[in-house]
């Protein structure tokens, strides 16, 4: 795999210390319910700066994946507002990439999966080789993507996300069910993107990973933001009993 430290796929990236005008996220009174049922997300207020890595944690069913889908504009809130630096949701989505736990790949070769995105985004097609190199898949470029292992497929999904040169990378349990080496390599790729100025918002149940990656943590429970604060404060001193229980493996749902 290539050196993660030297590769940038964001040629126009603005240095992080000048990026304060970029896509700050503001949620106000965000709510979601389906078919007049019980509200799933309830009155979320949240402010995220335009850089760094936020990890969203919380038990199964807390509403984490739905929150990411709302942030990416795949579903619309029932109430409240999502404000990505004043952009329309369509414009905001064009500056984001979302990686799911189970990568959804085109039934084409590994390289064609990247090439498709580069073409769609009007980016230089010759970035394909560098991206595949970056995620350690250069030797699989011609293989049908469906033949990749789980970890390889996830690395391809990340490479495809980076091909969009996203300002915001949304990750939904992107390393769940991967082996430790694959987890490490994906964390390194994400850290590299973050250091290049890509804003990362990642959902994970992997507490070790959250501690390695997070600048700040949002803890969701029962569709509400129970805690939001710096990772260095959240992990040693969670303020709520539910977060304490979750971190110690006692909170089931
Ligand atoms: N279309 C839908 N209609 C009704 N309820 C839904 C719908 N989609 C999701 N839900 C419910 O919303 C809740 C939150 O779902 P979500 O997928 O966001 O949870 P999560 O926090 O990502 O959980 P996990 O850690 O298991 O991935 C769940 O109880 C789920 O059953
Ligand atoms: Mg989920």
Describe it.
The chain has a single domain, classed as P-loop containing nucleotide triphosphate hydrolases (Rossmann fold), CATH 3.40.50. The protein has helices at 64-71, 89-94, 110-120, 127-134, 150-163, 180-195, 207-213, 231-234, 241-247, and strands at residues 25-32, 41-48, 53-57, 79-84, 96-99, 168-172, 199-203, 216-221, 224-230. It starts with 24 loop residues before the first strand and ends in a 6-residue tail after the last helix. The chain contains nine helices and nine strands. 32% of the residues lie in helices and 21% in strands. The protein is α/β, with parallel strands linked by helices and 253 residues long. The strands form two sheets. It has a six-stranded mixed beta sheet with strand order 5-6-7-3-8-9, sandwiched between helices. It has a three-stranded antiparallel beta sheet with strand order 2-1-4, with helices on one face. The longest helix has 16 residues, at 180-195. The site of adenosine-5'-triphosphate has 10 residues, from helix 1.
């Amino acid at each position: 795999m290539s050196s993660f430290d030297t590769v940038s796929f964001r040629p126009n990236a603005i240095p992080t210390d000048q990026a304060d005008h970029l896509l700050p996220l503001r949620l106000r009174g965000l709510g979601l319910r389906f078919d007049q049922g019980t509200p799933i997300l309830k009155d979320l207020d949240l402010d995220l700066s335009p850089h760094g890595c936020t990890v969203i944690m919380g038990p199964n069913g807390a509403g984490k994946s739905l929150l990411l889908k709302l942030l990416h504009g795949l579903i619309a809130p029932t109430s409240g507002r999502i404000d990505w630096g004043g952009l329309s949701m369509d414009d905001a989505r064009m500056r984001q990439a979302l990686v799911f736990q189970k990568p959804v790949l085109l039934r084409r070769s590994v390289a064609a999966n990247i090439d498709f995105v580069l073409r769609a985004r009007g980016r230089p097609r010759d970035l394909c080789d560098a991206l595949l190199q970056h995620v350690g898949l250069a030797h699989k470029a011609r293989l049908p993507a469906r033949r990749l292992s789980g970890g390889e497929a996830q690395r391809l999904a990340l490479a495809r996300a980076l091909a969009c040169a996203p300002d915001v990378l949304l990750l939904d349990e992107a390393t769940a069910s991967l082996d430790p080496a694959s987890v490490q390599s994906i964390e390194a790729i994400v850290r590299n993107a973050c250091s290049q100025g890509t804003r990362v918002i990642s959902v994970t149940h992997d507490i070790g990973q959250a501690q390695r990656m997070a600048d700040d943590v949002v803890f969701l429970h029962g569709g509400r933001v129970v805690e939001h604060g710096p990772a260095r404060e959240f992990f040693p001193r969670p303020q709520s009993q539910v977060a304490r229980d979750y971190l110690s493996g006692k909170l089931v749902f």
